[in-house]
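Help wanted!
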Amino acid sequence: MLSVRDLETRFVTRRGVVYAANGVSFDVGDGEIVGIVGESGSGKSVTISSVLGLIRPPGAVVGGSAMFDGTDLLKLPGRALRHIRGARIGFIAQNPFGALNPILNIEAQFANVTRAHGRADRATIRQNALEMLKRVGIAGPERVLDGYAHELSGGMAQRVVIALALLLNPSLVVADEPTTALDVTVQRQILDLIAGLIREGRRSMLIVTHDLGVVAQYCDRVVVMYSGRVVEEGPVATVFTRPLHPYTLALLRAVPRRGEPIQALGGRVPDLLSKPVGCAFRHRCAFAKPRCESETPEIRPVASTNPLGRTVACHLDVEREVPALAAG
Amino acid sequence: MPLVDLRNVFRSFRRPDGSSVWAVNDVSLTVEQGQTTALIGESGSGKSTLGRLVLGLLPPDSGTVSFEGVNIAGLPRPEMRRLRARLGVVFQEPYESLNPRLTVGAIVEEPLIIHRPALTRAERRARVDQALREVDLDPQVADRYPQAMSGGQQQRVGIARALILEPSLVVLDEPTSSLDLSVRAQILELFGRLRAKHGLTYLFISHDITTVEYFSDQVIVLYLGRVVERGPTPEVLARPRHPYTQALLSARLSVDPTVSPPHFPMTGDPPSPTAFIPGCPLVGRCPLEVSECSKAPVPLHAVGVGHEVACIRA
Amino acid sequence: MSSLALSRPGIVRRNLGLWLGLAIVFGLLLAGFFLPLPYDPIKPDANAVLEPPSAAHWFGTDNLGFDVFSRVIAAAQRDLPLALGGALVAALIGVPLGLATTLKNRASNLIMRGLDAFQAFPLLVLAIALVTLTGNRLEMVVLAIIVIQTPRFVRLIRAEGLAIRESRFIEAAEAMGASPARILFVHLLPNVSGVVMVQLSIAAANALTVVAALSFLGIGVSPPTPSWGVMIQGGARLMTSGEWWVSLFPGLAVFLAVMSLNLIADELDIIFERSSR
Amino acid sequence: MANVVQANSDAQSSPAPVAAQQRVAKPSRSGGFLRLVARRLLLIPISMFFVITFSYFLVEMMPGDPALAIAGTTASEREVTIIRQQLGLDRPFDERYASFIAGVVQGDFGISFFDGQSVRESIFRFLPASLELMVLSLSLAALIGISIGAMAGYFRRRAPDSIARIGITALQAVPEFLIGLLLIFTVFYLWRLAPPPVGRLGLSDSYPDPVTRFLFIDLIIAGDWDGLVSALHRALLPVLTLAIGTAAYFAKVSRTTIGAAMESRQVQFARACGLSEFMVLRYALLQARTPILTYAAILIGTLVGGASIIETMFAWQGLGQWGLASIIALDVPAIQGFIIATGLFSMLVYLALDLLVAALDPRVTHE
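Answered by r_m:
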């Protein structure tokens, strides 16, 4: 469905060049939900913005490819890419109140999205919008359609955003932290809704999140990012039970559990103002070797788990040198 | 005597359009010396307002707020200012709570300048160095400005400032929610270590049940400005009696993919805080709702040792 | 980074615009006071009337035989201090007043209502009326600038101050028991210093155009004292007959000075923005 | 104005407080709007009181004997006495002030010392010309300025933006009267594309009957097409002068606001939905609309009366020219009338702006 290879994105700022994505590669298969997980500054949001062609100056995608249904999104001219965005790739934004236009009523926003991808008369647009709003669980769709974003609660507004993303029946949905801005009890409802709609429509989804729980419970595969690189990738069921990269391990161990001493990961994320040489995680890694200083680890398949398609970017013999999750 | 004792506290805010928001609605609670009491709730639950009431940064509309046995609600300003030496606070946004025009040293030193005027400059400097070391910062950072530091380091500066006078109560207002997971663990670990070392009393405000479970002795669950359930943390989280507490617990997603997500019982969003709710605030979202629920507020009643819940079905 | 960190190496290269602007403004000011002039700026030469620019008269001469170059330089002596001084006094009045209005009380409401009404006037015309009615004196030009600029400082500082008052570090200071004076001087004032400096250069630029406009109308100046506005006025009618240099060169001087002050403001804005993020 | 600025800074604040507002049930839209209208209307008398008092004290501030200063050195004793009486200097202060306010409230601004005309009459006579100049130059300025600003904002941090930024800064540094002189030199003297800067009609043209007192409209009513062409030709330079100067301000504010809007999440989401770049720019313009309108209102408020130097330079015969002449002649009743009239006018413009913003923005139904 989507195959990203060696993606490189940079930003030119007053402080220097920020190397935000440095050779990011991953795949999203048919009917698969893939989570990109990482802390702030890991390049996860930059990665999806790059794939969708949303990077604007002073940022630029300087290398790599993103094949979607046989076309490279990164090489597509603006007009052609625009017809894919919104129609064949839906986008769910993080904060619905940031995303929805506060001045246009909801119906006008449905109309604009529909008309951006073809002709349609008002009645059809309204009909489709009403149907979509019902499918995302909005009880009074007429009232919502005639109203404005600020009249909605957070959960309702996010449902509207989801309806807009799915309006034209996209085969791939990209979601950027879709529940971070919502209340805890609303988050679960929205996640259940999104996952249900994806599964039932046999769509694929790429979801960016910093919440390991979201990945564990809703994703099939996970891409773990650190410092603008993918450090580990594979099925959630195995990656989260037997992490092979020291960073993935440390992240999972940093989740507080009652009755157990917390195992904090020391140090901080490096800034991306210089092109990283060597493994970016080495300063915080308990198992770093001299080789990690100078050589950037390539992402490679892990031999014994190969049928499961697990890859990791680490110089260690990860299966033997990286301890299991439960062991201290 | 509890360190903090709130009795029937009300606090509302007037919105510019004339409507009122009942941020805190008839709340009574205590914080015991040496314990960590957690206030948990979603946005609009009144948990941050409660924190400010306890700190004396906001006066209550009615009710009493006692700290060390003194009602601080009506305290004259100079006395209140003196009392503040025994109250520390750490805010959610580490960067915003540090003055960008002061060095780290000046920030941590400020409580000493205000409350320990007898100290010499060198003595203050020594205390600042020690406070920075306690939070695992190199004393050399005293010359730096907060904006040159990472979020985790900034939060450490905030903690050093809150603890330098060795306060009897520290209010932690979502101190880790704007931090990354790996940094969050470091800060939680630091709070735990400082608590053990100095026997601190924390009032811990959070919306994250995982952190609360890990970190607190007592938990108070708030919904729309009211206490819906409270008790010892292990007891409340193991046997939640209020549907809202149950919803909060099942909204928590395990990082273990082999544990399937629990059934989530609730629907809808929290209602508008300006709406007048005669009965249980959960009406409309609750799976156990019966017609009596919407008639009158449900008082807290005991369901176990120290475990109280405000639900007629519990 | 401290307030400006001016001593750091590379600061000149990084903030080229700032240094260029400062150099031009102070260059003009110093030239006005100390540059030896080729001709006496207040003594006309009846034998050299309306001469176009040449090696003898770089900027030409006007219809009375004054050397335009000498007068353009000499005018800096009067116009620049007026504008800079006026802006500075406006800041000295406006900043405390603005900070005072961040206290939510009756007096601050009254101040703001008064300023609202004030805002309703065409302020330039008001300045003209003020100077004319009070007897056309030079001090009154400064007063007019203060009248125009002070409300802008009050508004700006009020807006900034209110925003900062809402910020967490003020709440943190209150929570640790800081006195109101301490909050004002340690926490509030240093955080508005950036916008004050930016506004100061904007106000100076603005004041300079006001000074020019007033003297263009012959208000507040007594001939033959050189002033850019008077000189532009002197050449205004000559524009229709093609003697462009009489107005153009003093006009360029105003342009250069105002542009430099705006440049300083722009650069300061960027510097302060960056140092507080 | 405080309301306007406040409202617009609220609209641009971070998403968090906005999100907090969303949960609140919205009061009925028309109700909120009517309340806003009522409140703003109530403010006008209060602000006008300040304006009137100010205009009074401005004259009161005159040093020495105002009557002597106004009459000039050549005046006879009798003339000075008349002026003194007219100013009411022979009466106690509170009585003077009270009768001044009473007069103004009844619309009586007195008689000009200079031409003996009713000040109110003069205001109504000269205002239309100023309004015509303002409408023409402001429309042109908005067109040029917003186009440049939108282009710069759209290409933020790229070459067109840098060029626009330098151009705007440079243009803002040129005093308006200098722009006028440079235009006179180039367009009139060098290229002979404009008539000389003297008046609104040529010597051979005749003025139409003052039906509306708006020259262009009266010329159309009179069917004097040659006169209209001549008048438009003569309007070219003053309109261009004001438009160029004002366009820089429009460009500056639209560049900043549209530039910021282009980087907003809203625009990012619009792009992610596949909306065309034209549509995306429209979304950004919608977001930037309020600050631009606010700026336009401020400019309208200052241009009527504030364009006095340009009006004088081109002998436009507008309110500004009349006001400036009155000031220089120390014509006290005229100055007071002028200040009150321009003050009232700006207040009405700001009121109209507040209501327009409220009507256009579904969020500003209550403060």
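OP: Thanks! One thing I noticed: Chain B has nine helices and twelve strands.
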